[in-house]
Amino acid sequence: MTVSATFQKTPETKTDTVIVGIYKDNRLTPSAEALDKENGGLIQYSLKNQKKFMGKQGVTLSLALPQGGDYNRILLIGLGDPAKLDAGACETIGGKLYMALSSVGAVHATLLIDSDQARENCSAPAMAAHIVMGAKLRSYSFDRYKSKKDDEVEKFENIEVVTDEARQAHDLYETLDHVGEGMFLARDLVNDPPNELYPESFARIIKEELKPLGVDIEIFDDKKMEKLGFHAHLAVGMGSVRLPRVVIMRWNGADKKDSQPLAFVGKGVTFDTGGVNIKPTGGMEEMKLDMGGAAAVVGLMKSLALRKAAAHVVGIVGLAENMPSHMAYRPSDVLQSMSGKTVEVMNTDAEGRLVLADCLTYVQRTYTPRLVIDLATLTGAMMVALGTEYCGTFVNDNEMWEQMAVASKESGEKLWRMPLDEAFRKEMDSTIADIKTLGTSGRYAGACTAAGFLQRFIEGDTPWAHMDIAGTAWVKKDTAICPKPATGFGVRILDRFIANNYED
Ligand code: BES
Ligand code: MN
Ligand code: ZN
Predict the structure, then answer these.
(1) For the whole model, what pTM was predicted?
(2) Does the beta carbon of 446 lie inside 6 Å of ligand 1?
(3) Is the pLDDT confidence value at 301 over 90?
(4) Alpha helix positions (H), 105-165
């Protein structure tokens, strides 16, 4: 169970913990002052007797109350500098609050949020909704394969937020919660091990999850893919007995039903051994994350359907398992991609771009979308360049980049713009075929040449963005709002991107 929340004007349910905020340098919020008076000056007294808390952002201090009262403890949560509080800061605070509540053994808590002019960028409803969102995101757990479920250990579950503007806080949180559910689906898919999640089972799960929400689902099996010309994509999956699949997801919540859709394409390599160019042992187990792009697209579709987005969106995921075997494709093979371009395989570990190439062609030719965004754990080079904090993003359209940058700022999912260049596209010319999968300059600019490869499959002047999420789909250490490893990166920013710019 993850955190559930209610929003009220006055406290209604029985609680074991009352939470109030303290600004930096121990400045009490109005609700903290009121609670201090009710409890004979306990808060002021406790703050005077220690130097660590000081109202620092996300730091907590638990004050036990004597028996016989209405609740067991007061939990002080540091809010830091009120002028610096924004949505992202509130989520970090919420995540830390969740951890503190769990560790003191709280089960039902009440959080008091006052309307305060001192917070310039953060109204009371926004603060309430984002603190709860942070708590929810941090409360995610993946215990499907544990004999003892996390729920059997008593965990923090219910939070009642008390604020004058309860209605607004509730409405704001409802939307965030829908996006959170999409993120959780993306996290579940990435965390699921590859013996359980392979192309066929992945396709089945997508249908089970999204069809009941009103998303149209179409699944292409390998035979259908062959007919449609997904030859580059099929080649990647030939080494495995688990054959490739393509899943198309359609959500049309737009008023104008015949509007051109927005298209989202996800790399769904359910396990990447490298194929015949097999990867070294160290870290290969992480390659179950190689369907993180597909997971984000599926999570996005779930968010859109849950919040009934007034937009026309098509999602497509290319699913395959990259294995070495006597059936596997080889370096130096020449493939006939759906676009008509022939592709020389330089290294079977550069498989994602082959899967994406056919999916990009298919979605452009079938739907003439307004724009296309692909997400892929495409290159180790992206991680070398930007690490795990920023998602390198290649965009062929400045206006679209501006929209993505705004969505990034609002959602907290960080993007960094990367270069597309004729030189990178040109580098992919092959001597034997139309195009080859690796650049001539070897490991130099590996993320950029991969983007250059993909760009050769973009038709006409279709606005297009490629998000290389190799570094951001996965964290090695827990963060304030995400227990390791899968993050669900991409769902939030793209949901915002659509909400800001493409809804009726
Ligand atoms: N899935 C990997 C990229 C990756 C690496 C994602 C680490 C997340 C973490 C991709 O298919 C791959 O193997 N890329 C190769 C490309 C190389 C053969 C040019 C790489 O990055 O080493
Ligand atoms: Mn690979
Ligand atoms: Zn891969």
Answers:
(1) 0.98
(2) yes
(3) yes
(4) 124-138
Q: What are phi and psi of 215, to 5 degrees?
A: -90, 130
How many Å lie between the centroid of ligand 3 and the Cα of residue 145?
A: 25
- At 116-168, the pLDDT tens digits run 888 888 999 999 999 999 999 999 999 999 998 776 667 788 999 999 999 99
Instruction: Give the phi and the psi of residue 86 in degrees, each rounded to 5.
Output: -140, -175
**Which CATH number does the domain 4-162 belong to among 3.40.430.10, 3.40.220.10, 3.30.200.210, 1.20.1560.10?**
3.40.220.10
> Does the structure show a pLDDT above 90 at 75?
yes
- The neighbour count for residue 104, using CB atoms within 10 Å, is 17
Q: Which atom of ligand 1 is nearest to the CA of 382?
A: 21
Specify the residue with its C-alpha closest to ligand 1, atom 13. Answer: 349
Q: Is 74 helix (H, G, I), strand (E, B) or coil?
A: strand
**CATH architecture observed for domain 180-501:** 3-Layer(aba) Sandwich (3.40)
Residue 118: the pLDDT is 81
81 has a pLDDT exceeding 70? yes
Question: Does residue 313 come out as left (phi exceeding 0), alpha (psi in the -120 to 50 range) or beta?
Answer: beta
Q: Which atom, in ligand 1's list, is nearest to the CA of 438?
A: 19
Is the Cβ atom of 448 under 6 angstroms away from ligand 1? no
pLDDT value of residue 157: 85
Q: Which residues contact 460 (CB under 8 A, 6 or more apart)?
A: none
**For the segment 366-388, what is each residue's pLDDT rounded down to a tens digit?**
999 999 999 999 999 999 999 99
**Alpha carbon 101 to its chain's center:** 25
Q: What percent of the chain has pLDDT over 90?
A: 94
Task: Give 491's contacts (C-beta < 8 A, 6+ positions apart).
Answer: 179, 182, 183, 186, 296, 299, 300, 303
Pocket probe mutation, ligand 1, options 284, 285, 288, 349, max atoms within 8 Å of Cβ: 349
Please, which residues have CB within 8 angstroms of residue 101's CB and are 6 or more apart in sequence?
17, 19, 75, 109, 135, 156, 159
Q: Helix 491-501 to helix 398-411 angle, to the nearest 10 degrees?
A: 120
Among the residues of 331-483, which ranges form H helices? 352-367, 380-386, 398-411, 422-426, 446-455
Instruction: Write the DSSP symbol of residue 333.
Output: -
Q: Give the start-to-end residue ranges of the domains of the chain.
A: 4-162, 180-501
CA distance 235 to 229: 11
